[in-house]
Amino acid sequence: MKTLIKIKPKEYKVGDVVKVDFMAMHPMETGMRKNKDTGEIIPANYIDEVKFMFNDQLITKMIIWESLSVNPLMSISFKVSGAGTLKVIAKDNKGQSVESSEQITPKG
């Protein structure tokens, strides 16, 4: 699973609220679709939990359902309290997880 984190705006200072976008490249299969060639049910494979953390402190935790689109995009608003590391951990129903991080570097 590949991921992408974007912070908007690109320049911010301590006390500013920024938008954090997180995208995971994931098939998000519900377990209800059939393979067109074989007619067999495609097994469920979806992200079921996403955690946003700053300096190893939990900001928010999202519980995700099967019906989210392929390559889902999730966003949060985050008040910048200082420099540090923003980490996002995504886990799917098959136990696979991925961790991405982005440095938070306020200007001014």
Plain-language structure description:
- The strands form two sheets. This protein has a four-stranded antiparallel β-sheet, with no helix packed on it. Strands 1-2-5 form a three-stranded antiparallel β-sheet, with no helix packed on it.
- It has 108 residues and is mostly beta strands.
- Helices cover 0% and strands 51% of the residues.
- It is elongated, with a radius of gyration of 16 Å.
- The protein has strands at residues 2-8, 17-25, 47-54, 57-63, 73-79, 84-92, 97-104.
- The chain is built from no helices and seven strands.
- It has a single domain, classed as Sandwich (Immunoglobulin-like).
- A hairpin with a 4-residue loop joins strand 6 and strand 7 (97-104).
- The model has no long low-confidence stretch (mean pLDDT 96).
- The protein starts with a strand and ends with a strand.
Summarize the structure.
The chain has no helices and seven strands. By secondary structure, the protein is an all-beta fold.
